[in-house]
Amino acid sequence: MMEFLKELYGVGILFFYYMKWLILVGLPILYFGLDYKFNLIMNLLWGYSLILVMKDFIYLVILKRKY
Question: What are the 10-residue block averages of pLDDT along the chain, 67 residues in total?
């Protein structure tokens, strides 16, 4: 079970590392430009992506730290 959780955590890190900007910018375009139907799961992913982008901004600009 612990091995599965570690693998799931790694997949989540990779997924959001590459997809956070696409989700953050693309979902409002889908909703307001293309009349996409509102979806709770996509809204949660968008909120999580927003939190990750804000975290990156705080780390890079305010705290002046690199990963």
Answer: 87 86 91 90 91 88 75
